[in-house]
């Protein structure tokens, strides 16, 4: 049995940042990382960015750490190995190759996997997902010959895939279940801006539709919708969300909701086990609700905080997360907790003609989240307003005025 003081499961941004943070503060004790991907740390976000996908930047730009970095920092990376069982009482993690690792402090930074389509034909060649580097390599190969793609599902990655495909010269039909694109995240007017941009760039949006079957012999030749309509395609790109198989975590007595449950220190309910990144459902000290966030900046800072707490610190995680998606001339920013819900008010301002949109999510008169289209300069001031808990009760009308920019030096006067 291998023995280590710190064991980190997951070699993405959360896991790697935690290992780095631990090593900066503890030069002596062993750090071991397990990753079920056969690679060292790479940029997951680059996988859906056209510059990488179309080979406009060298492939090697994907790597965010060298092989030597692990050696120099005395971090043992077991790549291509999966943790399948946890005995939290005896502090042992079991791997799929039969190895056992005894730890003192454990971090679960296991991120997520693509949710798979479970319909007739979904195992055919040409049904593709985009979550990891192997997926990206497969898609890059497939677009060399594909002329037409259907994209199933319209999440963040689905939107970016639309642009990747169009830039690669592939025709795209986008199939969504909702009444309009990003329903639930945007309102209809905000969605119109995104849909207009998609259509203008040759994407056919098929709303309120579900795929019943993937057709073709061994390989995809199209999809059949529940309505009976058939759409031909050479590849089907599926983007219907992310999930994480938590059974082995639950079996060890760790509480799980949408993600692995943690307090504001990113500790789970079991002593000496922390979680961070996309996998964590943590107590958000800003909204005073449980938070579940899937973006890079959030995972990076959580990795750092978890690392500090694993070496004996006691730091709460407090962060207004954000991420951007650019495509078809739109820059879309997601800030903080932008979900709708009980006790949340929406303030929205839109100009479809100018492609401008501001949607603020307000709780107890304070902004807790926002979505912006082509208003990138407002990201920093809004994040700051969220962090400071600025009361906006007498400023609501002003936020509805798109001509008025929210700036750092004027939000107090707003
Ligand atoms: C295509 C794509 C584009 C994106 N673009 C953006 C963007 O532009 N901006 C942004 O902010 N965010 C973006 N994201 C989201 C961002 O990549 C994630 O939020 C971030 O990578 C989460 O990091 P993480 O370390 O928590 O998890 P992950 O990066 O998912 O890493 C977790 C790792 O753990 C491994 N693992 C899981 N279970 C086990 C196990 N049992 N044993 C061993 N290993 C295991 C997984 O395979 C994975 O390698 C994008 C995501 C994708 C897929």
How would you characterize the overall build of this protein?
The protein is an alpha/beta fold. The chain folds into three domains: 2-44 and 63-112 and 244-310, FAD/NAD(P)-binding domain (3-Layer(bba) Sandwich); 127-238, 3-Layer(bba) Sandwich (FAD/NAD(P)-binding domain); 329-399, FAD/NAD-linked reductase, C-terminal dimerisation domain (Enolase-like, domain 1). Helix content is 22%, strand content 29%. It has helices at residues 13-25, 50-53, 67-72, 133-142, 156-167, 188-200, 247-250, 296-310, 379-388, 396-399; strands at 2-3, 6-9, 31-35, 75-79, 83-87, 92-95, 100-102, 105-108, 113-114, 127-128, 148-152, 171-175, 204-206, 211-215, 222-225, 230-232, 235-238, 242-243, 260-262, 273-275, 280-284, 289-292, 322-327, 330-336, 345-351, 356-363, 366-373. The chain has a five-stranded parallel sheet. The chain has a five-stranded parallel sheet with strand order 10-17-11-12-13. Helix 1 (13-25) runs parallel beside helix 8. The radius of gyration is 22 Å and the shape is globular. The structure holds flavin-adenine dinucleotide.
Secondary-structure map with pairings?
Layout: E1 2-3, E2 6-9, H1 13-25, E3 31-35, H2 50-53, H3 67-72, E4 75-79, E5 83-87, E6 92-95, E7 100-102, E8 105-108, E9 113-114, E10 127-128, H4 133-142, E11 148-152, H5 156-167, E12 171-175, H6 188-200, E13 204-206, E14 211-215, E15 222-225, E16 230-232, E17 235-238, E18 242-243, H7 247-250, E19 260-262, E20 273-275, E21 280-284, E22 289-292, H8 296-310, E23 322-327, E24 330-336, E25 345-351, E26 356-363, E27 366-373, H9 379-388, H10 396-399
Parallel strand pairs: 1-7, 2-3, 2-8, 3-4, 8-20, 10-17, 11-12, 11-17, 12-13, 19-21
Antiparallel strand pairs: 5-6, 6-7, 9-18, 14-15, 15-16, 21-22, 23-24, 24-27, 25-26, 26-27
């Amino acid at each position: 049995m291998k023995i280590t003081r710190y064991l980190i499961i997951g070699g993405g941004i959360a896991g790697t940042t935690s290992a780095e943070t631990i090593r900066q503060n503890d030069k002596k004790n062993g750090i071991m990382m397990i990753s079920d991907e056969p690679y060292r740390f790479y940029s997951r976000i680059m996988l859906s960015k056209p510059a990488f996908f179309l080979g406009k930047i060298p492939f090697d730009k994907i790597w965010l750490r060298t092989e030597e970095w692990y050696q120099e920092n005395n971090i043992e990376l077991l790549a291509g190995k999966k943790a399948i069982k946890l005995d939290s009482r005896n502090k042992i993690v079991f791997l799929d190759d039969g190895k056992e690792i005894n730890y003192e402090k454990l971090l679960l930074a296991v991120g997520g996997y693509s949710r798979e389509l479970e319909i007739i034909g979904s195992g055919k060649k040409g049904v593709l997902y985009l979550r990891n580097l192997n997926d990206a390599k497969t898609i890059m190969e497939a677009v060399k010959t594909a002329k037409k793609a259907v994209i199933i599902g319209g999440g963040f990655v689905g939107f970016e895939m639309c642009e990747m495909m169009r830039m690669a010269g592939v025709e795209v039909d986008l199939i969504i279940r909702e009444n309009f694109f990003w329903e639930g995240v945007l309102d209809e007017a905000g969605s119109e801006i995104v849909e207009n941009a998609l259509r203008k760039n040759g994407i056919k949006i098929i709303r309120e539709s579900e795929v019943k079957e993937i057709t073709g012999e061994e390989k995809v030749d199209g999809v059949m919708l529940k309505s009976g309509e058939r759409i031909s395609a050479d590849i089907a790109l599926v983007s219907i969300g992310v999930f994480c198989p938590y059974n082995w975590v639950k079996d060890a007595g760790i509480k799980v909701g949408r993600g692995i449950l943690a307090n504001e220190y990113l500790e789970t309910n079991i002593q000496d086990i922390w979680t961070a990144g996309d996998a964590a459902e943590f107590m958000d000290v800003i909204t005073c609700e449980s938070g579940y966030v899937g973006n890079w900046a959030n995972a990076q800072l959580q990795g750092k905080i978890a690392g500090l707490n694993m070496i004996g610190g006691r730091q709460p995680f407090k962060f207004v997360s954000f991420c951007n998606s650019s495509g078809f001339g739109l820059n879309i920013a997601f800030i903080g907790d932008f979900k709708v819900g009980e006790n949340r008010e929406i303030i929205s301002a839109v100009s479809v003609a100018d492609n401008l949109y501001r949607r603020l999510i307000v709780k107890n008169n304070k902004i807790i989240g926002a979505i912006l289209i082509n208003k990138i300069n407002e990201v920093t001031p809004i994040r700051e307003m969220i962090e400071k808990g600025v009361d906006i009760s007498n400023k609501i009308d002003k936020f509805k005025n798109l001509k008025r920019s929210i700036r750092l030096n004027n939000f107090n006067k707003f």
